[in-house]
Each structure stands twice: as structure tokens, then as C-alpha cells.
Amino acid sequence: MASEHVDAFIAAYGGDGPWVRLFRRAPAYLGTELHQDAHDSRRFITIDYWTSHAECAAFRHQVADEFAQIDEACGRFTERERHLGDFESPVPRP
Predict the structure, then answer these.
(1) Is residue 87 part of a domain?
(2) The total number of structural domains that make up the chain
(3) Which residues on neighbouring strands pair with residue 31, listed in sequence order?
(4) Could you read off the pLDDT of 40-63 as tens digits, one per residue?
(5) Phi then psi for 17, rounded to 5 degrees?
(6) Would you say 38 and 5 are in contact if contact means Cβ atoms under 8 Å apart?
(7) Which of 45, 54, 56, 85 has the fewest CB atoms nearer than 10 Å to its CB?
(8) What is the domain extent for residue 36?
(9) CA distances from 12 to 18, 21, 65, 90, 91 (A)
(10) What confidence category does residue 75 fall into, taking pLDDT thresholds of 50, 70 and 90?
């Protein structure tokens, strides 16, 4: 991402950005973490926590239009986005 977009990216993907506000409407949403690369300040990873993959998928289907609008609006902040996978924890989250 271009360095001039870093602050806007943090605002969009951080704790009170449009993604988190959308996800908070789902009872199955547990939270989001945004991490910035220690060596490249223009590189980030987001981790969204849900009670289950099925609940996340159902919510995304339910709000597909809003999801697409936010994704389009925030797309200008990124050069590339890659889905790393869907993970489940072998231990319960505190």
C-alpha cells in the first residue's frame, strides 16, 4: 500500500472502522485484531474471531451488499489482499 494510505487503512480496519461496526451486528462475532508488520509499516494482517466458520459465512451472506460496498470503498487502500485461510483454535478463547 502507498504510505499515504496507512492511516486511512488503520482507521478502516481498526477497532472502530466500518468492518468492525458491520461485524458487531452479528452475535457470533467475537472481535478483530489488526497487526502491522514490524519491518514494513505498509503491511498488515487482520484476524477476525467468530464463534464458528459457519456463523461467519452465514452473516457474510446476510450482509453481502453492505460487505461489497465496504470492500469497494476500502479497496483503494490496498495493493493486494490475500485470504490466508479459515482457522479454528484447538483451545477455547478466554
Answers:
(1) no
(2) 1
(3) 49
(4) 999 999 999 999 999 999 999 999
(5) -80, 175
(6) no
(7) 85
(8) 3-77
(9) 6, 10, 18, 30, 30
(10) confident
Domain contains 16: yes
The whole-model pTM stands at 0.85
Question: Could you tell me the three cell numbers for 3?
Answer: 504510505
Q: At 94, is the secondary structure helix, strand, or coil?
A: coil
Whether residue 92 lies inside any domain: the answer is no
Distance CA 67, CA 64 (A): 5
58 within 8 A of 27, measured Cβ to Cβ: no
Q: What is the DSSP string of 35-93?
A: EE-SS-TT-EEEEEEES-HHHHHHHHHHTHHHHHHHHHHHGGG-S----------SS--
Q: Is residue 93 part of a domain?
A: no
Q: Which CATH number fits the domain that encloses residue 27?
A: 3.30.70.100
